[in-house]
Amino acid sequence: MTPDDRATAVLEDAVTSADETVRVDDSLDEENTLKKDFIRRVRDALDAGENDEVYALVEPLHPADIADLFELLEADERPLLAKAISDLMGSEVFAELNDHVRELLVEALPAGEVADIAEQLDTDDAVAMLEDLDEEDQQAVLAEMEPEDRAAIEAALSFPEESAGRLMSRDFVAVPEHMTVGDLIDFLREGRELANEFWEVFIVDTRFHPVGTCQLSWILRTPRSIALTDVMKRDQTLIPVDMDQEEVALRFQKYALISAAVVDADGRLVGQITVDDVVHIIQEEAGEDVLLLSGAGEGDINEPIRDSYVSRVRWLVANLVTALLGATIISSFGGAIEKLVALAALSPMVASIGGNAGTQTMAVAVRALATNQLTRANTGRILWRELRVAMLNGVTVAALIGIATAFFFANPLLGVVIGTAVVVNIITAGLAGVVVPVLFDRFGQDPAVASSVFVTMITDSMGFFAFLGLAVASGLV
What are the C-alpha distances in Å from 138 to residues 185, 275, 316? Predict the structure, then answer.
C-alpha cells in the first residue's frame, strides 16, 4: 500500500467513525446515557421479534453503552437482546456488564459461547465472569476452553476472592536482564505473541524474579547499545499474589503507579496489575463501605430481591434489638416522665443529636482506616483530636438547646440539664465513633459492617440515661 493509499484509508476510517458518532448520539442524551425513546424502540422491536431491527439499533453503540442497555432492560428481555445481537456480544461488552446482569446472561448462554467469550477476555475479566457461576456450570465452560486459557483461569480461580491473584492479568512483557536496548526493540518488533497493551517491560533474572522495569518512553529514547541493566529502574513496587485488592489499590494510590508486577510466594513474576483495574477497585471499595455503613448490603439495583432482603433485614433486626435497650432505660424513669412531660418530648432530641455526632465521627474513622490514615501508631492522637472536636461541638449545641429550652418551658434548670446531657452524649459519640471501628479493625472485622449499629446503640442509650438521670439527680422532678 502506497503512502497515498494509507492516507486515504485513514481518512475513510475517520469519516466512518464520525458518521457512527452521529448515529450513536441519536441514542444518547446530554448526560451520555441512553435515551428513553431509544430504549422503548429496542423493547418494541424485541416484543415484535424483529431481531434485524434490534441489531440495526444497537450495532452503532459503544460496548459500554450496550452493557448499559442490558442493565436498563427487564430480566426476561435480556436473553432476547443477547440472541438478537449475538455477533456484538464480544468481550468488550461482557467486561462492562454489571456483575449480577453478567451472571444471569452467562447462565442463559450455552457453555461453548461463554467459553469463546472468555478466551477473548483478559484473564482478570474472564475470572470475574466465571467466578460466581455454580461449580457445575463453571466446569462446563472451562471444559470448552483451549488448554492454555483454561489453565490460566483455573490458576487465577485458585487464589482467594478479591486478591491480587484474581485481579492480575497474565498478559505482560518480561525479558532477561542480559539484553541491550536494541535487543529489546528487536524483540518487540518481531511480532511475537505479546500483550496487547503495556506501558513498561519487566526485567527478570534467571529465576524469573523481577529485578527492574523499563518504561517504553525510556526505551525509545535510549541508544541501542545501552544495556537494560544500565537504564532500568531497580526500585519497584511488587504485589504479593495473595494481597487483598483494597491494599493493592492503596499502594497504587500512594506510589502513583501505572502498573505493578505481581509475584508468587517464591518471588517469581506471575502477572501484572494495571491502573485501569485499580480505578474500578477503588470505586467498588468506596461504594461498598458507604453501603455497609448504612446496612444496605451490596446496594446494587440489579441484585436479586431475595439477596437485598437478606442483607438488609438482619441489620434492621439488630437495630430493633438495640432500640429495646433505649426503651428499657426510658421505662426505668417512667415515674420522672409522668411528673414532667417535657422530659418525654426532649429525650429523643438528646439521643438524635448524639447519634448524628457519632455517625459523623464514625464515617471519618472508617474512611481513615480504609485508607491507612488511622493506624496503631496514631490511634491515640486521632482519638484525642476527635474528643476535642466533640467537646467544641457539644458546648456549642448545648448552649443553643439549653437557652431555647429554658425560655420555651420557662424552666432554667431544665435548660441546664438538657445542655449538660447533650455535652455528655456528644463527647460519648465522639469516643464511640472512633473506638468502635478501631476495635472491629483490631479483631480483623470490617469496621464498616456493624459499626453504625453499635455506635447508635451507645449514643441512644447514653442520651436517654444522661438526660433522665441528670433530671432526677438535679431534683428537677
Answer: 40, 28, 35
For residue 16, give the C-alpha cell: 466512518
When pLDDT is averaged across residues 393-416 and rounded to a whole number, the result is: 93
| Calpha distance 443→317 (Å, rounded) | 23
Give the strands of the sheet with 269-274, arranged side by side. Answer: 238-240, 259-263, 269-274
Question: Domains (ranges, CATH) in the chain?
Answer: 18-167 (1.25.60.10), 174-294 (3.10.580.10), 305-473 (1.10.357.20)
How many whole angstroms separate alpha carbon 349 and alpha carbon 355?
Answer: 10
Q: Label residue 390 by pLDDT band (50, 70, 90).
A: very high
Nearest to 208 by CA among 272, 260, 265, 270: 270
How far, CA to CA in Å, does 290 sit from each of 253, 307, 380, 450, 460? 20, 18, 25, 12, 22
User: Which residues sit opposite 176 in a β-bridge?
Assistant: 204
Pairing relationship of beta strands 210-215 and 200-204 according to DSSP bridges: antiparallel
Q: How many Å apart are CA 455 and CA 430, to the nearest integer? A: 10
Classify residue 352 by burial, with Cβ atoms within 10 Å: 0-12, 13-18, 19+: middle
Q: Are the C-beta atoms of 446 and 246 separated by less than 8 Å?
A: no
DSSP secondary structure, 14-72, as one string: HHHHHHHHHHHHTTB-TTSSB-HHHHHHHHHHHHTT-HHHHHHHHTTS-HHHHHHHHHH
Q: How far apart are CA 59 and CA 87, in angstroms?
A: 9
pLDDT tens-digit series, residues 6-35: 444 434 444 444 444 434 456 775 555 788
CB-side exposure of 18: number of CA atoms within 13 Å?
Answer: 6
Three-point CA angle 203, 208, 213, nearest 5°: 20
pLDDT score, position 140? 86
Least confident stretch, 3-17, 175-189, 288-302: 3-17
Contact 81, 70 (CB under 8 A): yes
Q: Among 471, 460, 345, 456, which Cα is nearest to 418's?
A: 471
Residue identified by cell 459503544 is 62
Q: Which amino acid is at 315?
A: W
SS3 212: strand
